[in-house]
Amino acid sequence: MTLSMRADFSTIAGWIAPGARVLDLGCGDGSLLSQLRESRGAAGYGIEIDDAGVLASIGNGVNVLQSDLESGLAGFDDQSFDSVILSQTLQAMRRIEAIVDEMLRVGREAIISFPNFGHWSHRLQVLAGRMPVSEKLPYQWYDTPNIHLCTIADFDAFCVQRRFRVIERVVLHDARRVSLLPNLMGSLAIYRFRSA
Amino acid sequence: MSAGVVTPQRAAFAEPLALASGATLPSFELAYETYGTLNAERSNAILICHALNASHHVAGVHAGEADSEGWWDNMVGPGKPVDTRRYFVVGVNNLGSCFGSSGPATLNPATGKPWGADFPIVTVEDWVDAQARLADRLGIARFAAVMGGSLGGMQALSWAIRYPDRIASALVIAAAPNLSAQNIAFNEVARTAILTDPDFHDGHFYEHGVKPVRGLRVARMVGHITYISDEQMAQKFGRQLREGLNFSFAPEFQIESYLRYQGEKFAEYFDANTYLRITKALDYFDPAAATGGNLARALAPATCRFLVIAFTTDWRFPAARSREIVKALVDNRRDVSYAEIAAPHGHDAFLLDTPQYHAIVRAYLERAVR
Predict the structure, then answer these.
(1) Which of A23, B21, B179, B268 sits in a 20 to 30 Å window from A176, CA-based?
(2) Distance between CA atoms of B369 and B366, rounded to whole angstroms?
(3) Does residue B314 have an active-site annotation?
(4) Which of B330, B338, B339 sits opposite A76 (nearest CB)?
(5) Which residues of B touch A57 (CB under 8 A)?
(6) Do B337 and A65 touch (CB under 8 A)?
């Protein structure tokens, strides 16, 4: 099986303590968990609903549990993981508040990454009167799985409103860190936060 | 490809076997088959545990017998998910069965007559202990995997608990951590059908030259209903009639004649005393009974890796029961993967070859057995 490397993986790996217990929600082919196991000695589970992802994860030797994230994390006890990760999946979920609450219930820390809808290229497309289509958001409006897109400013406000304590925020574009005008120049945001 | 012609073998054990009931089997025999070759490190052995009505004949065919494919021939063989070119596969017939291992129909060495009703009631744990003796005999200190579906999955689970040093991975398929009241209820209907058949003679029917075939037929009919999903039955039979309504009690609906056929066929080859015992072994299986109902604590000794598989339309052992096993393993921080296979067939799906199901078993074993 081949492993994929996504732009947010190395940032996430940097936030995982050696030997940590991690839960990767929407783990796909298990690439992230596999890399965290190799580089951080991390152990844990991936959750995936898609048959192809479950099969690929098993082929990659990753612990994968086939389940629908929308139905919650009932199979996991409170505070049983160091980190619960949701990598580029948030925007496709129906019940955002429910899953974030569940992440902070079973984990001490939540790590969430999402495509930044506020990137200048998206704004230009909206100004031109069209829904944005980009490398990070490659879908047309009629076939997109992304039903809850947000900007970095939106997510910042969400964290304030829900009283989450943001420990770190990294914004990337083309796999490089963006520090100037992140909500305009960044295409991918990665947050690490806890409950207050 | 098929495993080809295989020859059943027997192993006799003179050392007594202490049973969960408190009884002791003074000696016993196990029928078994093997496929593939045990490697020099003895690290590629896979044990296949059978469910209610199956046997040691897992794969391949018996010489000179038509239609003698093993019961899991689609899973086990050269190039199959359990690839006998890579793995040394052992199929074993459980104690109390009627296909060659010591059971009610075999001779009681103390009397020289068939055991009949006197054959002790055996449990999943007793089976596993007997299987471990066979492993000793075959020179297998540690199985790369123990696997089975339904009652076979329960044996794999029991192996993981009882012999954690002798099993590297357990494949628990379409199983449950114990039977529900509804499961036990169906078993009790089946047992009552057998026990009340006038030809049963309290289990000593061999001496009377008869078989309680009527009871066995009904037992199989009721069991068979639980193996198939409602949607599968609707799709296969619906309300189809054989000829039309005759206003009689002869089979008129296709499902009636199908069930009768299944009952007839089963009663020809299966032993009533064995059926009673296997349903009891199912009813009694409950590893968490020893830990006050706490399955996580019951599974704490099990350190091997697990693959748990359930089927979406299985209403005999629904996916929720498999998720109980998964939850208990996660609570113990064990290596476990869980696949929920979309299949329309119901419980019987574990015997069929849904592509995702077979691909997962294949991929898991390729990682687990090296």
Answers:
(1) A23
(2) 6
(3) yes
(4) B330
(5) 337
(6) yes
pLDDT: which is higher, A5 or B296: B296
Q: Which residue type occupies A148?
A: H
Q: Å from B307 to nearest chain A CA?
A: 9
> How far is it, in rounded angstroms, from Cα A83 to Cα A109?
5
Q: Kindly tell me if the per-residue pLDDT of B94 is higher than 60.
A: yes
Residues of A in Cβ contact (< 8 Å) with B367 = 58-59, 61
B101 catalytic residue (yes or no): no
CA distance B327 to chain A (A): 5
* Contact between B137 and B112 (Cβ < 8 Å): no
Cβ-nearest to B327 among A54, A64, A75? A75
Helices marked H in chain B — which ranges? 124-138, 151-162, 181-195, 213-227, 230-236, 254-269, 272-284, 295-299, 319-331, 355-368
Task: Reply yes or no on whether B208 is catalytic.
Answer: no
Task: Convert the pLDDT of each residue in A65-86 to its tens digit.
Answer: 999 999 989 989 999 999 999 9
pLDDT tens for B314-366 read 999 999 999 999 999 999 999 999 999 999 999 999 999 999 999 999 999 99
Q: Which of B155, B98, B150 is nearest to B126 (CA)?
A: B155
Reported confidence tier of residue A1, pLDDT bands at 50, 70, 90: very low
Residue B221 CB-density burial (10 A; 0-12 exposed, 13-18 middle, 19+ buried)? buried
Q: What is the DSSP letter of B124?
A: H
For residue A146, what are its two tokens? Answer: 């992304």
Q: Would the pLDDT of B6 be above 70?
A: yes
pLDDT of residue B244: 87
**Whether the Cβ atoms of residue B95 and residue B101 lie closer than 8 Å to each other:** yes
Chain A contact present for B299, CB below 8 A: no
Q: Show the beta-strand stretches assigned E in A95-160.
A: 107-115
Q: Do A75 and B326 touch (CB under 8 A)?
A: yes
Cα separations (Å) of B285 from B20, B124, B127, B150, B317? 11, 6, 12, 12, 13
Beta strands in chain A (DSSP E): 21-25, 43-48, 64-66, 81-87, 107-115, 164-173, 176-177, 188-195
Q: Which residues of B touch A58 (CB under 8 A)?
A: 307, 337, 339, 360, 363-364, 367
Closest C-alpha to B364, from B147, B53, B213: B147
